[in-house]
Amino acid sequence: MRAREREEEDEVLCAMRRKGRRAVRLNIALQLITIATALASLVLYFTQDERGADITVNHIAQCVCALVVFNVPLVISRRFRCYIPDFLTVTLCLFTFAHFVIGEIYRAYDKLFLYDKILHTTGGVIFALLSFSVVWLLNNAEGRKTKLSPFFVVLFTFCFTMTVEYVWELVEFSADRLFGLNMQRWQDSIIPGAEIVVGGEIVQGTVHSLAYGNGLFDTMSDMAVNIAGCLAVCIFAYIGMKRRPDWFENKVILTEGQFRAMLAEKKAQAKTAPRETEGEEERETSQDTEEES
Length: 293
Description:
By secondary structure, this protein is mostly helical. The chain has a domain at 1-112. The chain is built from nine helices and six strands.
């Protein structure tokens, strides 16, 4: 019995890994590109005299953060023996690569118009999908007596996504204040060489082209587009749970037991399908013989 159970368990785990094989390949490819980017930055530091150590350290730190995020889905799926759908893993990996490598290292945030707002909108969609998958997983766990209504599932999804966005804005604010960075774009509105009046005297001072500075505008607009992306997912999820409650089954994060049940259901359907076709053929032949007679 134990040997058979182990074989079934190994079969389920292998099936879970096979199902997510495409996402793993993309994950590995992006990790290799990230490592190559870090090595290239290190080589440029030793070959270019004008390249400062702060830039190289920043690039390597960005690559390390990206590699950590890349491996989060792999660690979670193996540690907790769960299946993460390909579209979740792919979107998370592409978002991570777009932010840390393309945005921070190759400075797409400075060179491409609305790149920052597009990523914040996409981030709202991604974290809303992740939080919804977790809530759906817990809400439909085996042996659970009480279940949350669609409204509370969507409410938790919205609150979790907004919490992630709020924490990220705190990270940007702290990085700007502690290390003099420009993550909140507060330096973009500074007018160089401006003169202000202090105590009746004209002195050199800091003047912003926007009221309250560009940092406040950047933070509020980031949160606004993040809310827009999150709301799109919440509205879609709420309508789907109301009209077709079973549509999300097997399309979100699954535990090992839920994945095993999905495989058993597919095998049962595969066995019943030939029987149904045989029954239809027998009915057709009997109808033909009756017409001939």
